[in-house]
Amino acid sequence: MLQYISIENAKRVLQRQGSVQTAAFESGLSGRSRLHDLFVSIEGMMPGGYKNGGAGLEICYAFAPGPFGDVLVAATPKGICRLAFADNREQDLQDLTAEYPQARLTEAAHPLHEKALAALGGQTAQTIPLHLKGTPFQLKVWQALLQIPAGRLKSYSGLAADIGQARAARAVGSAIGSNPVAVLIPCHRVIRESGIIGGYRWQRGRKMALLAKELERTACFNT
């Protein structure tokens, strides 16, 4: 999982935070990583496709190695619909099937898989279209996540304020927790108001490693 950085180093880097306001990520790091330069566009599925479990959709999926562990990547003809760290392949496939019970799922290569995996590894940025199943509120939160620069942090309440729903921090947290596309939609950049890293859909240790790696990248861009 931690090909690029050890969890102990991640802890040392991140524990220096006092709060969101004084986080090390906010200390003069104006550069952006290649990942943040990535142009990610989100298209929500039509209401019919959302409600009927993806009936009529063809989804190609594959398991592949990544810099922070194996991943499950899946795409419709319109875009990536899931990019998840695959710590349990059988369960991850079951989750994908449960999300799209009426879709036709095929284990096969798709041109967008390669783009998504390249972006996950921090390689040359390319346009990555996402085709996601979500409520209007979830899609709004996921769009807002794309505005958080690499190497920066945002609190749940801060993100809620960004979308004009200042009192909906808990609902924002729920939408973040249901994000189906790891890293490309950077839900790992959201932490608690106190500065505590908090949980992560794909393990807290992995979240810390992702943030530590981004700090390393942005620091390099500013030296």
UniProtKB/TrEMBL annotation:
E.C. number(s) listed in UniProt: 2.1.1.63
Domain HTH araC/xylS-type residue range list: 1-53
Molecular function, one GO term: sequence-specific DNA binding
BP terms from Gene Ontology: DNA repair; methylation
CDD domains found in the cross-reference section: ATase
Record keyword DNA repair present: yes
Keyword DNA damage: yes
Top-rank lineage group of the source organism: Bacteria
Listed InterPro entries: HTH_AraC, MethylDNA_cys_MeTrfase_AS, MethylDNA_cys_MeTrfase_DNA-bd, MethylDNA_cys_MeTrfase_DNAb, MGMT_N_sf, WH-like_DNA-bd_sf
Keywords of the record: DNA damage, DNA repair, Methyltransferase, Transferase
Catalysed transformations (reactions): a 6-O-methyl-2'-deoxyguanosine in DNA + L-cysteinyl-[protein] = S-methyl-L-cysteinyl-[protein] + a 2'-deoxyguanosine in DNA; a 4-O-methyl-thymidine in DNA + L-cysteinyl-[protein] = a thymidine in DNA + S-methyl-L-cysteinyl-[protein]
Family per record: Belongs to the MGMT family.
Entry protein name: methylated-DNA--[protein]-cysteine S-methyltransferase
Organism in which the protein naturally occurs: Neisseria musculi
